[in-house]
Design a protein that fits this description.
The complex is a heterodimer of chains A (100) and B (212).
Chain A: H1 2-22, H2 32-39, H3 65-98
Helix pairs in contact in A: 1-3
Chain B: H1 10-34, H2 39-54, E1 58-59, E2 65-66, H3 71-78, H4 80-96, H5 106-131, H6 136-164, H7 170-202, H8 204-208
The chains are: A mainly alpha (100), B mainly alpha (212).
């Protein structure tokens, strides 16, 4: 049963990685909010972020944009999995210690 | 619909940040009590799936794109409180690492996509799937409608924040935001129901965890 479970979430994580590999195919058109801001004349109110890490899902220093986007997607997918797994594990662990 | 820096004024930033902080604090307390062992990896993979899927903007019409939100997908699998934590984590990462959504707009973005979207969508889903007897079709129809309303209401809340900030009058911002996102929400509903039908076909027990 446990092995079966491990298999399930490994497959689910693999699906997320496949999506990250598809990320260069994403539409570059403005999203709903950007479109409204352009149409209604308040897009220029948007200010630049104070710092940039992997701005706009393009990994810095890589000339091939598709590759830079895929790398950004992979890094983000690993990072969010690790962060949320850790948060959930901590919440679960605190709960276990409290109930003892 | 990640709001960048500059669109919101100070009072709106303060109020949305305070409301979001209180709700996320509540979510941490509830999840701390309820989280099951199997849900730890499920929370991680659900967040990974949502992050990756959010990168895939799809064209809708007239040179505009939309992307998957995932709030109701997470809420059906893990409940609205855990979904709030997942969405907030995704938004924090997008804000600080990918510069998607402004730091000053974080409270508003969490409120729209991490609180309003999962809670409103989840309770509508529960209502519809309950009326349909908790059958497979009930889960699929309920999650489609719940996912649609989650995007629609998040966009409406965004319009209200733009109005409160003096960026755009409500009678301009609301129809425009609600209009585009009514279309984007249909894709949200289809992807949510499609992904859940895959989960139902392979690990039905994951969807039922929340019914107990």
């Amino acid at each position: 049963m446990k092995l079966q479970w491990l298999k399930w979430w490994h497959v689910a994580l693999a699906i997320a990685f496949v999506l990250a590999f598809l990320s260069p195919l994403a539409s570059g058109s403005p999203d709903g909010l950007e479109r409204v801001a352009e149409d209604k004349g308040f897009i220029e109110k948007a200010s630049e972020p104070p710092f940039k890490v992997i701005a706009d899902y393009v990994f810095p220093g890589i000339h091939n944009e598709a590759l830079a986007t895929i790398l950004a997607g992979i890094v983000g997918t690993i990072a969010i999995f690790a962060v949320v797994y850790a948060v959930a594990w901590l919440l679960r662990r605190r709960q276990a210690t409290k109930s003892q | 619909m990640h709001i960048p820096d500059g669109f919101l004024n100070a009072p709106t930033i303060a109020v949305t940040a305070a409301v979001s902080a209180a709700c996320v604090g509540g979510a941490v307390a509830v999840v701390n009590k309820k989280l099951g062992e199997k849900q730890v990896p499920l929370m991680g993979v659900t967040a990974a799936f949502i992050f990756a899927a959010q990168m895939l903007n799809f064209p809708i019409a007239g040179g505009t794109s939309g992307h998957f939100l995932g709030a109701v997908f997470a809420a059906v699998l893990l409940g609205p409180w855990a979904a709030s934590i997942i969405m907030t984590s995704v938004l924090l990462l997008q804000c600080f690492i990918f510069q998607d959504g402004g730091i000053t707009a974080l409270g508003a973005n969490v409120l729209n996509m991490g609180i309003i979207a999962p809670f409103a969508g989840y309770y509508l889903y529960r209502g519809i799937s309950g009326l349909m007897g908790g059958s497979r079709n009930g889960v699929l129809v309920g999650s489609f409608v719940g996912a649609w309303i989650s995007v629609f209401l998040a966009a409406s809340a965004c319009a209200a924040e733009l109005w409160a900030s003096g960026s755009s009058p409500l009678k301009v911002a609301f129809p425009a935001m609600a209009g585009w996102h009514a279309v984007i929400g249909v894709v949200e509903g289809l992807v949510t129901a499609g992904a859940l039908s895959l989960v139902l076909a392979t690990r039905r027990d994951l969807v039922q965890l929340q019914k107990a």
